[in-house]
Amino acid sequence: xxxxxxxxxxxxxxxxxxxxxxxxxxxxxxxxxxxxxxxxxxxxxxxxxxxxxxxxxxxxxxxxxxxxxxxxxxxxxxxxxxxxxxxxxxxxxxxxxxxxxxxxxxxxxxxxxxxxxxxxxxxxx
Length: 125
Ligand SMILES: [Zn+2]
Known about the structure:
Blueprint: E1 29-30, H1 34-50, H2 56-69, E2 71-73, E3 76-80, H3 84-100, H4 106-119, E4 121-123
Antiparallel strand pairs: 1-2, 2-3, 3-4
Helix pairs in contact: 1-2, 2-3
Bound molecules: zinc ion.
């Protein structure tokens, strides 16, 4: 038996809301803290700075793991399973495409990156 996080009354799991106070049973939230966010952003920035950007795919994956791992959507936690080595191949490909298109391909890089991140994101349970 689960209990309401807000008022503590027993919950009917099949119901979307607590019968007593109306709090959603399967809430969506992001549960990272300010300190975690600061520390992880700092580490990612340092990784990029000290490798002159070469390790950017690893820094991006590090941040995505942190950001996505704190998303809870409809009661299910998300997890990001991509890693820098997988992204590095795409990174090189996107870089070369930007070079041969004189930078025009840069408009495609962010959407391609988001698609890649989404394809490596899963929900638990
Ligand atoms: Zn309640």
